[in-house]
From TrEMBL:
One of its GO terms (biological process) is cell adhesion involved in heart morphogenesis. Keywords: Nucleotidyltransferase, RNA-directed DNA polymerase, Transferase. This is RNA-directed DNA polymerase from mobile element jockey. It comes from Lygus hesperus. GO terms for molecular function: RNA-directed DNA polymerase activity. SUPFAM superfamilies: DNase I-like (SSF56219). One of its GO terms (cellular component) is extracellular matrix. It comes from the Eukaryota.
Length: 619
């Protein structure tokens, strides 16, 4: 790879002068418009399981969500079971070499990232790759142990070999390297700096990142190799650990965000406005139609336009923007008070009483945060009493954080990495591959069944009930009862019509809905628009390139779900009444489940033993 020409001494100095130490995140970020910039935040967290909550409170107080969070010295237990954060995808190093080791990187879900594990002698890291437009980026997070056994020269040589293979247009290194810069008469440190500089990297920090009462060291590093000279590095003071945080903001040509790193606007439905719209809507073109496809499509069209007309943009207050649900306004106020005390104690270094007051209050805030989190989840578990599913959801959230699943399909990531495709092309390719596979499942199963031989079936007779099944028309009470059993929070289909909207405005929508459903039943025609589903490929495990390792989850239209429930209820009642179902079928039946199946099995076993029969038992 050909490196860009290194900046002149003047440019290099201008970069160094930008490296300032700030009192907090807001003091740093408020200087820049983040609309077209990437924000990277790094901290040596010294046990994430112990200090992550305080870091989240600090971010919550600033109301600034970095694009990438890099935590070093995360400790092995947390690295193996990292906490999930809403809006982020978590990447963690594997096989920590000791209890202190580990790197964890959180990337915003808007980025489709590739992850490469890095392992040096005495050091661990992650290489996070992502693209923005046509430009490729590499963010390398490293933690190097301060142990005397971790030779600087060996580490430097291994790091140089790794950097030689980097072909990204822009490459950044952040982390706790435990090498103090700048050095005086230390050949190993000089070799480290010379080697990295020879690869085209510039050091962006020039102030201490670890300040103790008797020493100041710059052992947290930020390096950049990029065409962009307009970079804004920073050291951010923090008393969470004995390391300050480091940060970097840099602009990109193809990256735009509507509201910086703050989510300030969201779409909400004006329910009063929607009620007025439905009250004034004329549904006669639907109720007078005898064409089931036209009537169903027109109904969906009216619902979509009505909801869109009643939807408004709402400014989200800072209180509604939370990384974790247990962070209260009181905690934020305590953090601000702690920060003021810290500043006063730094200015009045000889005031021992003020320092003692600050230390006591700092420890008190740590205890407040711990108790607030414990109290929140204790109350959640108490409120979920009698609901096992809700209880386990609370426990999982308390242990692993708010679930934030990666929004990028593993197949898309595979195509990006292997075939070097752009994200939009990889997404289309993955959709075509999975759609082709899913739509051929039925024909493949049918073909395999027909190939099997089941012997001579010509003389076999089958029992056929005298009664015939007829789907009855749906009444108002049928529709009302079905809506009562349906959860309003269930995911909508491709038409985006929420079931909660239908339930809320039942009295206005019941007649057009009943007309469409009963028209479908009487004409024995299932509406075409109900046959289209939004399919989510759920990765089950195994080879990510194998389409068979994805399970299709179909998001059906809310209207389709109601009609299908009506048919299913009456069909099930017919099968039960005519005793068509096998008495030993325990799955998907009312008042039958695992307990009944186990009872039947044990009863058969007892009968076989008592009668001393020798026969196979199939179950």
């Amino acid at each position: 790879m050909e490196f860009e020409e290194l900046p002149s001494d003047r440019d290099f100095c201008s970069l160094e002068q930008q490296s300032n130490t700030y009192e907090n995140i807001n003091d740093f970020v408020s200087k820049y418009d983040l609309g077209d910039k990437i924000f990277i935040f790094h901290m040596n967290i010294r046990s994430a399981s112990k200090n992550l909550d305080e870091v989240l409170c600090m971010l919550e107080m600033s109301k600034v969500m970095p694009d990438f969070l890099v935590f070093t010295e995360a400790f092995g237990t947390f690295v193996c079971h990292p906490t999930s954060l809403p809006g982020y995808t978590c990447h963690s190093s594997i096989n920590p070499r000791n209890r202190n080791d580990g790197v964890v990187v959180y990337s915003k879900n808007i980025f489709s990232c590739t992850v490469v594990q890095i392992s040096f002698k005495g050091a661990t890291g992650l290489d996070i790759g992502f693209t923005i437009g046509s430009e490729s980026y590499s963010l390398i997070g490293i933690y190097r142990s301060p142990s005397a056994n971790c030779d600087i020269l060996e580490f430097t040589d291994e790091l140089t070999k790794t950097l030689k293979g980097k072909t990204a247009n822009h490459c950044f290194i952040v982390g706790d390297i435990n090498i103090d810069l700048p050095s005086e008469n230390n050949p190993a440190v000089d070799h480290y700096m010379d080697s990295i500089s020879s690869m085209g990297f510039l050091s962006l920090l020039n102030e201490p990142t670890r300040v103790l009462h008797d020493s100041k060291t710059q052992i947290d590093h930020v390096f950049a190799r990029t065409k962009v000279l307009e970079m804004f590095p920073a050291i951010i003071k923090s008393d969470i650990t004995n390391h300050f945080a480091t940060a970097l903001i840099f602009p990109t040509a193809s990256f735009k965000r509507s509201h910086g790193t703050k989510i300030r606007i969201k779409k909400v439905i004006g329910y009063k406005r929607l009620e007025v719209i439905f009250r004034q809507t004329d549904f006669t073109n639907i109720t007078n139609s005898n064409d089931v496809n036209y009537a169903s499509e027109e109904l969906i069209n009216v619902l979509q336009k009505s909801v869109e007309a009643a939807t408004e943009l709402k400014k989200v207050s800072s209180r509604e923007q939370k990384l974790t649900p247990w962070i209260t306004d009181g905690i934020i106020k305590s953090l601000r008070t702690r920060e003021l005390l810290r500043k006063k104690a730094e200015r009045q270094k000889n005031n021992s009483l003020l320092k003692e007051r600050y230390v006591k209050f700092r420890n008190l805030v740590k205890e407040i945060i711990r108790k607030a989190k414990t109290s929140f989840f204790s109350n959640q578990i108490e409120s979920a009493e009698g609901n096992p599913k809700k209880t386990w959801d609370v426990i999982k959230t308390a242990i692993a954080g708010t679930t934030s699943k990666d929004s990028v399909c593993p197949l898309v990531k595979f195509l990006i990495n292997k075939n070097k495709l752009q994200t939009n092309i990889a997404q289309k390719t993955a959709c075509n591959l999975l759609n082709t596979f899913f739509t051929q499942i039925g024909s493949r199963l049918t073909s395999s069944i027909l190939k099997k031989s089941y012997g001579n079936t010509k003389n076999q007779s089958y029992h056929s009930p005298l009664n015939k099944f007829v789907i009855p028309l749906m009444s108002e009470s049928d529709l009302e009862n079905i809506l009562k059993t349906k959860k309003g929070s269930s995911a909508p289909g491709l038409d985006a019509i929420q079931l909660s909207t239908i339930k809320r405005y039942y009295k206005f929508l019941k007649f057009p809905i009943l007309h469409v459903f009963n028209l479908s039943i009487s004409m024995s025609v299932f509406p075409e628009c109900f046959k289209t589903a939004k399919v989510i490929p759920l990765y089950k495990g195994g080879d990510v390139s194998d389409e068979g390792n994805y399970r299709p989850i179909s998001m059906l239209s809310s209207l389709s779900k109601i009609l299908e429930k009506h048919v299913k209820d009456h069909l099930y009642a017919f099968l039960e009444h005519n005793k068509v179902l096998n008495s030993r079928q325990f799955g998907f039946r009312k008042s039958a489940g695992v307990e009944e199946a186990l009872y039947a099995l044990t009863s058969d076993l007892y009968d076989i033993r008592e009668q001393k029969r020798k026969e196979p038992l199939l179950c």
